[in-house]
Amino acid sequence: AQTVTQSQPEMSVQEAETVTLSCTYDTSENNYYLFWYKQPPSRQMILVIRQEAYKQQNATENRFSVNFQKAAKSFSLKISDSQLGDTAMYFCAFITSGTYKYIFGTGTRLKVLA
Amino acid sequence: AAGVIQSPRHLIKEKRETATLKCYPIPRHDTVYWYQQGPGQDPQFLISFYEKMQSDKGSIPDRFSAQQFSDYHSELNMSSLELGDSALYFCASSLTRPGYGYTFGSGTRLTVV
Q: d(Cα B30, Cα A25) in Å, to the nearest integer?
């Protein structure tokens, strides 16, 4: 079975500091894609960053970067210089190549403190 | 830039009533997905359509049905509503290209009373 595990239900970080959200997954597939989605209090689901499993280089998007460890099936999200607007629920998700159905983790609620 | 449009934003229905949720995908996106997110839960996949044909089915109750129309908009029909159907219903659209990622709509919050 394909699963995504986010072991941190809640986290908090001081504004301007760095925080890392953990995600592990399980799949027997070799070709897949990993994503982090942000869901702020507005409940909108917003794509934060994506990573192709065949790429060794970690994806970076402004203050957001990932640490992708394929052998360990780990896909953590690092948020640098945290801002109050980063307060949200963060979902890790993946799609295997050939299907178009996300497998979501249960989410990590991040609160950025002023 | 155009986004995924869902209507209505909020809907209140009584038990055993019927609800219809609408989704208008991003132009030229060929795939539409429906997700249900209960309070404090992660989104659960319901059903998807590729080029107006059902492409995948998840944990969608038999009381629910969905279709995609010729203009690519999709509707989720929910009958015999139950209290447990109260949730946020997301529609997302995407291009059928591996790893493209979804664009989600803002969701319809359905409350069954």
A: 28
Q: Would an 8 Å CB–CB cutoff place B106 in contact with chain A?
A: yes
Query: Quick check: B67 and B14 in contact, CB under 8 A?
Result: no
Kindly state whether B94 is in contact with chain A, defined as any CB-CB distance less than 8 angstroms.
yes
Nearest CA in chain A to B104: A45
Residue B46: strand pairing partners: none
Sign of CA dihedral B38, B40, B44, B48: positive
Please state, as a whole number, how many other Cβ atoms lie within 10 Å of the Cβ of residue A72: 9
User: What mean pLDDT, rounded, does chain A reach?
Assistant: 91
Q: Quote the DSSP letter at residue A53.
A: T
Mean pLDDT per 10-residue segment, chain B (113 residues): 88 97 93 90 89 87 95 96 96 78 89 97
Instruction: Tell me how crowded residue A69 is: count the other CB atoms within 10 A of its CB.
Output: 12
- B92 reaches A (C-beta below 8 A): yes
Contact between B48 and B32 under an 8 Å Cβ cutoff? The reply is: yes
Candidates B45, B27, B28; CA nearest to B36 is: B45
Q: Which residues does residue A69 pair with via DSSP β-bridges, in sequence order? A: A74
User: Which chain A residues are closer than 8 Å to B45 by Cβ?
Assistant: 101-102
pLDDT tens track for A38-69: 988 877 888 999 998 888 899 999 999 999 99
